[in-house]
Amino acid sequence: MQSDSRLYDIALTFLPGVGDISAKKIFTFFGNSKSLFEAKLHGLQSIPGIGEITAQKIYSAFQIALDLAKEELEYIYANEIEFVTYAESNYPARLKECADAPFVLYYKGNPNFEKEKIISIVGTRSPSNYGISFCEKIISDIAEKYPNAVILSGLAYGIDIAAHKAAINANLETWAVLGNGLATIYPSQHKKIAQTIYGFNGAIMCDYPHFTKPDAQNFPKRNRIVAGLSDAVIVVESGIKGGSIITATIANSYNRDVFALPGDIYSIYSKGCNNLIKTNRANLIDSIEDLEYLMNWTTNESPNSKPKRMLKMENFNENERYILEILQKNGATEIDNISRILNMNSSTLSLTLLELELKGIIKVNPGKMYSVF
Prior knowledge:
The strands form 2 sheets. This protein has a 9-stranded mixed beta sheet, sandwiched between helices. It has 3 domains: 1-76, 5' to 3' exonuclease, C-terminal subdomain (DNA polymerase, domain 1); 118-303, Rossmann fold (3-Layer(aba) Sandwich), CATH 3.40.50; 313-372, Arc Repressor Mutant, subunit A, CATH 1.10.10.10. It has helices at residues 6-13, 20-30, 33-37, 41-45, 52-60, 62-78, 93-96, 129-145, 159-169, 191-199, 218-228, 243-253, 271-278, 288-295, 318-330, 335-342, 346-358, and strands at 82-85, 104-109, 118-123, 150-153, 173-177, 203-206, 232-236, 257-260, 283-284, 333-334, 362-365, 369-372. Helix 1 crosses helix 6, helix 8 (129-145) packs parallel to helix 9 and helix 11 crosses helix 12. Helix 13 links the parallel strand 8 (257-260) and strand 9 (283-284). The model is unreliable at 301-306 (pLDDT under 50). It contains 17 helices and 12 strands. It has 373 residues and is α/β, with parallel strands linked by helices.
């Protein structure tokens, strides 16, 4: 474990009084994280901006931080989690532009952080049909014209989860940024969607150690990742205050393009969007054309070039794999034919189909015909 040089990068984040900005300053001062843990107290006191008291706290916490980092690495290795540190060349270039970007980013899945188009979609936890409809429409249009784009959100209730589901349904890659560690999916009702996300080339990510609980103060902080990883942020319905407005404000500070869906002036969930537009903090958006025009996007990808969805069969149980193999081979298939081919009893088949549907893997078509999204 000690041979992993990145152990010291993780340990740096466990030191008291060291945030993301100061971690980068310390790393730059020493040239690497390991040298920090080999330094003497007077060496710490030489770091610009680190006073004598803070230096003493850091020095006294070296062993505790290393022990916590070892525990974190053990969890990472045991749970197929990956991470990237600010010290590494493959750290997301978009995040590296942001002064307060996380020093360590943990993730589960297979994200390509250098994707050409990454769009964050955020909004209220209590959306109207108008907001949901727009969210689904804009994502469907993005998928049709830009099938290699990524939809980024926060896995929360409302617009967030609607964006993830719409992306999955449209075969678009989607990433979710959590306000807690990867040992917990919050809210728990979205666990199956989370599994679907990282099951086919998407990712669940955060900058918190695995044991971090979903405490309220963590969520505003995670919004900087939602804003920083994206090229643009779209706010779909929001009150005058809240997480979506925080994300938009952070995106403004990062020089990201911000868009807002206008709405009914009497609706509390349109007041935030309307105010963003009125105060010139967001561009009005009502169609993909607004996004294309202001982002200077051009369609150079054929709709027919949309990649075929790749499913990792190891993520499914035996009955689910049997069903998916049939649907991938035969296309849309009637439930009676699935039952006949598999010789599976109706109750087991119905329950398995329902599980796959809830995971966002299959859909029911007219005539009880099932197909893979």
